[in-house]
Amino acid sequence: MDLEIDPLSPTPIYQQIRDRIVEGIARGELPPGQRLPSVRALAGAFAINPATVSKAYDLLRAEGLVVTNAKSGTVIAPAGDWTEAAAWRSRLRTLLAEARAHGLAEKQILDAAAHQLDTLSPVGSER
């Protein structure tokens, strides 16, 4: 798994880790059942506190995107019923409100959303 984080970013490192994993799932780079690095291994790779990686994995687990057990570690969860849809809609509404508050027109927002969706197209697929 190729994970990039920016230690100088205003986005907390745990959030960057979570976001990169979500993007990998969306692109099909991290399919269901794919094992993620252990907390210690990922923390060591970035020279960060293991608690930071743990926090990212906890978020992913709460969102139903990964499952963890002692035998297989943390793996990408199977695709299925999404129980967090209401929370996602709430975050989307807030994000759209922020765009409007900054003066973006509807077309600009839709164009930006379409562009971002294109960047998340699954590997090997055409849109």
TrEMBL record:
Keywords: DNA-binding, Transcription, Transcription regulation. Gene3D superfamilies: Winged helix-like DNA-binding domain superfamily/Winged helix DNA-binding domain. Residues 11-79 form the HTH gntR-type domain. The keyword Transcription regulation applies. GO terms for molecular function: DNA binding; DNA-binding transcription factor activity. InterPro entries: Tscrpt_reg_HTH_GntR (IPR000524), WH-like_DNA-bd_sf (IPR036388), WH_DNA-bd_sf (IPR036390). SUPFAM superfamilies: Winged helix' DNA-binding domain. This is Helix_turn_helix gluconate operon transcriptional repressor. The lineage of its organism: Bacteria, Bacillati, Actinomycetota, Actinomycetes, Actinomycetales.
